[in-house]
């Protein structure tokens, strides 16, 4: 197992000194990784509400920043599809797609526009959405249902080391496809992935605050 001192190396900027000598798949002509995981063609997708038609989230940014804080107890109430659509758009919404979906520009920044994340949702109390597990398709702005009508709260709680998810309306889980960033940055990718994730989560905090919802990050 690596020591604390060894792990600190990951934080240092001097890794960039090795940039010219790194083997990078992008430079070696390897194909561009997909910007989004695929899903079965026959899947029944669930429409989300397009950002242009959202009527919520009008709070000034300065106010949302001022109010932002972590909340660890929840009412057990529901949110609407419009609210969920807004939160998904704020965290991974897609502004533009290039080169047949190889490159996407989203509502959050990402080193080299690599956007290495996939968003999974454990929906507990979302109006018009069956309880269960979904994957967000940011490019289509739709949800891909993975497991519905199942109670996953115990599994989610176990996965978060027993934290307070039982009364939550929805749990966002970001997974990473490291190769999207490694393809361009090789060994330098992993710090950038960690930096990228903070931007996504902060947008979720601010978007929640702007519509009066409580949120807490959980690092696992
Ligand atoms: C990466 C990250 C991981 C976190 N993990 C947890 C966690 O597992 N459990 C928890 O209760 N809070 C967690 N938090 C919330 C922090 O404890 C919280 O941001 C901090 O105490 C400051 O409080 P504030 O967010 O209200 O300003 C996490 C925050 C971040 C950014």
Taking all residues together, what is the mean pLDDT? 94
Secondary-structure element string: HEHHEEEEEHEHH
Which ligands does the model contain, each kind named once?
A: flavin mononucleotide
- Measured between the Cα atoms of the first and last residue, the distance is 18 Å
Sum up the overall morphology in one term. Answer: globular
> Portion of residues in helices?
25-40%
Care to count the β-strands? 7
Strand order of the largest sheet: 1-6-5-4-7
Low-pLDDT residue intervals, each spanning 5 or more residues: none
What structural category characterises the helix and strand content?
alpha+beta
Question: Largest beta sheet, briefly?
Answer: 5 strands, antiparallel
Q: What is the number of helices?
A: 6
Q: What is the beta-strand fraction?
A: 15-25%
Radius of gyration (Å): 19 Å
Explain what the structure shows:
Strands 1-6-5-4-7 form a five-stranded antiparallel sheet, with no helix packed on it. Strands 2-3 form a two-stranded antiparallel ribbon. The two termini are 18 Å apart. By secondary structure, the chain is α+β, with helices and mostly antiparallel strands. Helix content is 28%, strand content 17%. Helix 5 crosses helix 6 (189-210). The structure holds flavin mononucleotide. Residues 69-70, 72, 163, 216-219 line the site of flavin mononucleotide.
């Amino acid at each position: 197992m690596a020591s604390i001192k060894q792990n600190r190396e990951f934080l240092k900027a001097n890794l960039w000194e090795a940039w010219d000598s790194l083997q990078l798949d992008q430079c070696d002509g390897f194909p561009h990784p997909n910007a989004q995981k695929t899903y079965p063609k026959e899947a029944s997708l669930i429409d989300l509400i397009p950002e242009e038609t959202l009527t919520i989230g009008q709070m000034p940014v300065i106010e949302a920043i001022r109010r932002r804080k972590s909340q660890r107890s929840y009412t057990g109430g529901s949110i609407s599809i419009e609210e969920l659509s807004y939160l998904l758009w704020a965290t991974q919404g897609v502004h533009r797609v290039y080169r047949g979906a190889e490159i996407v520009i989203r509502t959050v920044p990402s080193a080299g526009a690599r956007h290495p994340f996939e968003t999974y949702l454990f929906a507990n109390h979302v109006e018009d959405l069956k309880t269960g597990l979904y994957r967000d398709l940011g490019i289509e702005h739709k949800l891909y249902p993975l497991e519905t009508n199942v109670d996953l709260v115990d599994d989610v709680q176990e996965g978060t080391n027993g934290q307070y998810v039982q009364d939550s309306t929805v749990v966002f889980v970001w997974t990473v496809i490291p190769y999207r960033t490694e393809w361009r940055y090789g060994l330098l990718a992993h710090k950038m992935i960690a930096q990228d994730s903070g931007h996504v989560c902060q947008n979720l905090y601010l978007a929640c605050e702007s519509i009066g919802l409580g949120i807490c990050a959980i690092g696992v």
